[in-house]
Amino acid sequence: MAKNVVAAGLADRFEIEIAYTIGVAHPVSVSIETYGTEKVPDKKIMAAIDKHFDLRPSRIIEALDLRRPIYKPTAAYGHFGRIDHDFPWERTNKAAALADECGLALPAAAGR
User: Fold this and answer.
1) 96 neighbors 110 (Cβ within 8 angstroms)
2) What's the average model confidence in pLDDT over 59-73?
3) Contacts 24+ apart (CB under 8 A), 45-48
4) N or C, which terminus of the chain has less Cβ within 10 Å?
5) What is the C-alpha separation between 99 and 112, in angstroms, rounded?
6) Of 17, 12, 16, nearest in space to 2 by CA
7) Which residues contact 40 (CB under 8 A, 6 or more apart)?
């Protein structure tokens, strides 16, 4: 989600914190931090996230295809920030929808 928010141009820095409780599918808390770099109000960013991301654990597993074993490519050089493999969590495929939802033009480098 954070990569999509930044790729959409909604903020230059972004962090999201999600808290769950056992036996409850939806998060009990979702908080965001833009470190003062937001281009639209945090409430708009949160509304766009709510609309375009299903935060239930089963849907996150499905969206990131986490049941597909990819142990070997993730075992070396880390899991994040890599472009040498097509890791689903590195995609910014929802950036255009987030930018549109918040009334911004998508930056040229986004939408991978």
Assistant:
1) yes
2) 82
3) 45/5, 45/10, 45/11, 45/14, 45/98, 45/102, 47/101, 48/10, 48/97, 48/98, 48/101, 48/102
4) C
5) 14
6) 16
7) 10, 102, 103, 104
Q: Which position has the higher pLDDT, 80 or 70?
A: 70
Judge residue 91's burial from the number of C-beta atoms within 10 Å of its C-beta, 0-12 exposed, 13-18 middle, 19 or more buried.
middle
3-state DSSP assignment of residue 12: coil
CA distance 83 to 101: 27
Q: What is the pLDDT of residues 21-34, one digit of tens each?
A: 999 999 999 999 99
